[in-house]
# Entry
Amino acid sequence: MKLLIVLHHRFDLWQAPPWFAERLRRDFPQLEVVHLHDYHRVNDEIADADIAIAWSLRGEQITAARKLKWIHSTATAVHALISDELRASNIVVTNARDVHGPVVAEHAMALIFALAKRLPQAARYQQQKHWAQQHIWNATPRPHELKGATITIVGLGGIGRPLAKMAGSLGMRVIGVREHPERGCEGAEKIYSYDRLDEALAQAEFVVLALPVTPNTQHLMNAARLARLKPEGYLVNVGRGVLIDEAALIDALRKKSFAGAALDVTTEEPLPQDSPLWTMENVFITPHIASLTEQMWERHYDTFTQNLRRFLSDEPLLWMVDKEKAY
# Structure
């Protein structure tokens, strides 16, 4: 049985470390493990692979994969992997939602704290060696407590669920938005369907986007929805940049129609040097680092091998992706 690993990326951490394949060979000697460090030999190697670890494969590569039964994505979002050829196949797809979700939720919570306590502004004043206590207090919105504040979490998956629990433990009022509101979510006071998204947005001091990219969610936050945010409200995006109409976002932030935004993701990454978002005082940017942690690949190994043992025993896999919905 052959396992193909192909995870080439310009960012080092997204590439599987050498020990990952070596440990798989040691722990699963029945597997032939092929670890590619670029895409040059993918077409040849995937032809007889039974399993692939990849976050991006082209349709013709899926067609060439005559024996492929399972693809595991080391990303949570799988929109770069889904193709018509994959949808039409019997290949099972799983993702790493439980690897990244809780860590990204921590980052979202950190961004909420930073916005509430005006930490980005304090950091700017520090660079100027200015003791800006009065300036920070006079600015609007003023620093405020999270207890009692309302957070609307759009998407209650691997990120949204742990975030709801964290926010609830701080005494925040948690509203969730999900496709199936009847499923509930620990920590959420109310859960709305997407057809009531505008209502959920209008109630929140903090809106967090934590949902996958699908044809229905691209530019979900358009000009009309951005206008639903409270004047004192903040928008936090830890999902994907295309969830927001970036031109509409820039326009709303320039007009200061809501308090500000914290963005870990942008439509184009890296964010172009000429983007106005870089220099806006009401924008806090982190460079897609929400899931970064030294423990990430250990967690990847634990979750993948848990599923690998299930696969080898013909048991149902965990963290399966609906290929039609792409999440």
